[in-house]
Amino acid sequence: MAAPVPTKKNGLVLKTRRLKLKHTWTTVMSSSDYRDTFYVEFTNGGVTGIGEGAPIIRYKESAETCTAALEAIRPWLESADPWAFAKFMQGAFQKIEGNWAGKAALDIALLDWVGKKLNIPLWRHFGLDRNDAPVTTFSIGIDKAEVVRQKVLEAEAFPVLKVKVGLANDEEMIASVRAATKKPLRVDANEGFKSKEEAVEKINWLEKQGVEFIEQPLPAANLEDMNWIRKRVHMPIIADEACLHPSDIPKLAPHFDGVNIKIDKCGGLLEGWRMIQLARSLNLKVMLGCMVSSSVAVTAAAQLSPLVDYADLDGFLLISNDPYDGVKVEKGKLVLPTGPGLGLKARPA
């Protein structure tokens, strides 16, 4: 008689991975050469779901705080029914304070597990057509002129670029990009403009440089000045830092043309799905963004991309040590995996 095949032990494995950036990544908020992200491996019945979240210091979270938050309720997490994943995540939200990236990693791992058990890709589980996935931008971080030009050359395959602005060298940044390409641009100010007057001046200048829209020109809390700005510019304005959770969207609708939804910030794919539907009901354009992360988190977000107008899902392309293969980009278009769950394949160590 053949020996029984051993199965993986049920439970959670929590990990921190240091992702190395190909270039120093600079925005208005910070500059770094690496990012630490949080991983969850959820095993039940011999099947393991994998999830990742990119913690954000601004919201007082890190891989360490996410680990501590999930460790504190490990017995409950390991005893809950993963098939009741909506109920599971509702309970996790009630038990875990903050640590949205940790909740996102858990949500993604659960849904990856469900997709694998059902033997279908998650985009199919959500009732979507992978052929509807949009083009993604490739992001150009703030840098010296010669480095910016090099980054643009490296992004040759992408039909649309996203440029970080919001510091004193905005004109130099755009000039450096324009010296290398005439492609359409989108920009993200990351709350960097100092006043509504400066915002209007810069947005109108950016429009003349072939920029299609701008994200978050002013601080997230400053909503009233957005109406003043929108009356004086033609370019659509997308909420980014102001858009964290479903409850934010009704407050943003009178002040912005669209919202940028990030799975790491809202706590997972289930919350992201809710945000997309809510934004649509309020006639807002929808953008799906990401943090610097591996193919795990970006492939997860990409499962919802057939629902949105714009995608900025290039975080995995900015790192040099991605542990997985998942979503692909062909001539800028997102190509979703056809394997079960997220459809990830581990790279050789």
TrEMBL record:
Cofactor binding annotation: Binds 1 Mg(2+) ion per subunit.
Report a single Gene Ontology molecular function: metal ion binding
Write out the entry's keywords from A to Z: Isomerase, Magnesium, Metal-binding
Residues the entry annotates as binding Mg(2+): 188, 215, 240
Q: Which Pfam families match?
A: MR_MLE_C (PF13378), MR_MLE_N (PF02746)
Domain of life of the native organism: Bacteria
Q: Which family does it belong to?
A: Belongs to the mandelate racemase/muconate lactonizing enzyme family.
The positions flagged as active site in the entry are 164 (proton acceptor), 262 (proton acceptor)
- What are the Mandelate racemase/muconate lactonizing enzyme C-terminal domain coordinates in residue numbering? 145-236
Q: Which cofactor does it need?
A: Mg(2+)
Among InterPro entries, the record links this protein to: DgoD-like (IPR034593), Dipeptide_epimerase (IPR034603), Enolase-like_C_sf (IPR036849), Enolase-like_N (IPR029017), Enolase_C-like (IPR029065), Mandelate_racemase_C (IPR013342), Mandelate_racemase_N_dom (IPR013341)
Q: What is this protein called?
A: Dipeptide epimerase
Top EC category: isomerase
| Record EC number | 5.1.1.-
